[in-house]
Amino acid sequence: MRKLIWAISGIMFLAACNTGNSTKTLPIFGERTPVTKTVDGKPVTDTLYQTIPPFKFVNQYGDTISNKNLDGKIYVADFFFTSCPSICPIMQRNMLLVYNEFKSDPNVKILSHTIDPKHDSVPVLKDYADKLGIQGNSWWLLYGQKEEIYQLAEKHYLTRVNDGKDGLIHEGWFLLVDKQKRIRGSYDGTIPEQVKQLIADMHTLQLEK
Amino acid sequence: MKLKVILVIFCFVIAATVITSCQDEGQLTFKRYYSTGQSVYQNHCQNCHGAQGEGLGALIPPLTDSSYLKTNLHQLPCFIKNGVMGNIIVNGKPYSQAMPPAQLTSIEIAEVITFVGNSFGNKIGLVDADMISEDLGKCN
User: Fold this and answer.
1) Which of A22, A74, A201, B92 has its CA 20 to 30 A from that of B110?
2) Residue B86 zone, left/alpha/beta (φ > 0; ψ -120 to 50; rest)
3) Structural domain boundaries of chain B?
4) What ipTM goes with this model?
């Protein structure tokens, strides 16, 4: 009898865990504005979420990459520079885990923006990508105007982690963006456990429409 | 006769104690260098060279090439103190990314080389601070 009770509670416990996982949705970060529209003569209130605005950069192959290349895809964004000796190698080592997990999935991308465009020209980025051992089109190293990159980083990607501090762009955050270009997670790219969580969250996010 | 035997045994015991205690002292120094070297490594080297000395792709060389460490043992202190520019060949592969200089004392350099030199499959034994100071005097 006792065994039976244990078995039943065990099964219930597992079932509880399972449902917990399958219904998990990631939070949506950023500002939200209610919008009231009239549908069929009735007012309907919808929520408008903050999204990453349009952008245009150049990747390590010299191809132009814009927000349109990411339509219907989820992606991870981060900020780095090739001559960075401190935290970047850890970030790249950890981002390689993300790359290896999703490199065969065309609907998952990684966008690493250089914050040192003066040194990191397209050929420098290509050389860096080759030496990192990344190929194909799943991980883009992006070149753009410094002001544009900083603007995008500080006003959009990093608002979630920005608690009034400057210099966050140098702190190694990985930002997870969904198919509607909303930020769904931020992770410290220097901590392996957080990167593991990112990979798990990416699998969750992939299932969303 | 009996006294002689006792004397011989006594001398033998003394000698054995002296030898083992000397060894213990060497061992202790090694352990001290190694464990301090590990924290120096974690603070100054691990970000780039990795927790297992694995390096990073073709950007940052691994620290697992024992023959490189042995051949360049007397260069390593200069590399650590002044950084490295230009090409080096490790494990048969070229690396050209610059390594920044590290602000370390001779003893810390000795400790970190002792740690690296006896981790990740390497076994070069103790590297002491006197040798490091001498090597640093010959840096280019």
Assistant:
1) B92
2) left
3) 52-140
4) 0.73
